[in-house]
Amino acid sequence: MKDLTAVITGVGKALPEKRLTNADLEKMVETSDEWISKRVGIKERRMAEDGEWTSHLAARAARDALAMSGIPAEQIDLILVSTTTPDTLYPSVSCLVQRAIGAVNAGAMDVAAACTGFIYAMGTAWSMIRSGLMKNVIVIAAEVVTSSLDWTDRDTCVLFGDGAGAVVLSASEQEGTGILAMRLRADGTYADILKLPNSGSRVFPEYAGRFVKMQGNDVFRHAVRDMVECATDVVAAAGLTLADVDLFIPHQANIRIIDAIATRLNVPPEKMFVNIENYGNTSSATLPIALCEAVEQGRLKPGDILVLDAFGAGLTWGAMAIRWK
Ligand code: UT7
């Protein structure tokens, strides 16, 4: 049997209709459009309505990706959903998606690696396909982060938004295309600098409610250092140099983090994909939403080298190099 690789055959995204602008936030906490725009780079974010759950966004994005791939839902072998905000811990979001899209022959599993979850899920899918165990896997990242925000805490509530993105990954025998290399990293020593207390079996008496808690400055420093390191490693692991990269999609957490990475890696602005101004930080969904928009905008052509690079709570970080088919 020839070596198998995994190529992206479809992309999709789903964003709630409701928009929350910086002007809206000015009425809720002591902040300003100027501060948010300058310090973070966000103008507005989307917010799920009551009754619009993570699984709904995930299923919408998955349907889009399936339609583009042309692969019938019955031929999907596995559904992986990265999320930090599942509808419920069980049933998993992936099972709800499986039901919604009629992927009657698929297994289904949620992946928990915070904002890096899309890379972790893609890596899992890649190894399933490479090994010959599976042919078609849907990888989704879906988040309703606004369900975990303290709307009186200006340090966090201005940063995040809701959304979902999806890709269909399919087996191919075309050597040198699709996923070329991957890096997955973690450092639990820094577990405390970004967390969602009271979201599991542990009770945190010091925190009322289930709200994102972040030591922003520390997270910022780690994000820049770790994403630079990971992108450098993954490109080398693919046998390439940074100059070979045609499109770089970084996690969209802060425009200043993105700019710092671009400077350190010497990636020119036209090769750096940025859409944080429209959606804020949608946690693990930033990468597949951005990828879907890059495809819609015609920014990827066959043979292009794409690098995905993410960072998040855990700490976790990871990167992937892909040759576009
Ligand atoms: O996706 C997971 C990974 N997450 C991230 O990567 C986020 C990483 N961190 C960051 O993006 C930035 O650290 C933040 C955006 C969270 C904060 O930006 P910063 O430049 O690090 O600000 P800071 O925390 O040092 O605060 C600077 C000032 C403070 O006021 P003083 O003490 O200088 O008077 C804050 O109280 O800005 C103030 N501030 C605000 N002012 C207006 C903090 N939040 C706000 C706000 N509006 N929303």
Task: Describe the structure in your own words.
This protein has 325 residues and is of the alpha/beta class. The chain is built from ten helices and 13 strands. The protein has helices at 22-26, 33-39, 54-69, 93-101, 117-130, 154-157, 216-237, 255-265, 276-279, 286-296, and strands spanning 5-14, 19-21, 44-46, 78-82, 107-111, 136-144, 162-172, 178-186, 194-195, 213-214, 247-250, 305-312, 316-323. Strands 1-7-6-4-5 form a five-stranded mixed β-sheet, with helices on both faces. Strands 8-13-12-11 form a four-stranded mixed β-sheet, sandwiched between helices. Strands 2-3 form a two-stranded antiparallel sheet. Strand 12 and strand 13 form a beta hairpin. Oxa(dethia)-CoA binds at residues 31, 35, 39-40, 115, 154-155, 158, 216-217, 219-220, 223, 253-254, 257, 281, 311-312.
List the helices and strands and how they pair.
Blueprint: E1 5-14, E2 19-21, H1 22-26, H2 33-39, E3 44-46, H3 54-69, E4 78-82, H4 93-101, E5 107-111, H5 117-130, E6 136-144, H6 154-157, E7 162-172, E8 178-186, E9 194-195, E10 213-214, H7 216-237, E11 247-250, H8 255-265, H9 276-279, H10 286-296, E12 305-312, E13 316-323
Helix pairs in contact: 3-4, 7-8
Bound molecules: oxa(dethia)-CoA (UT7).
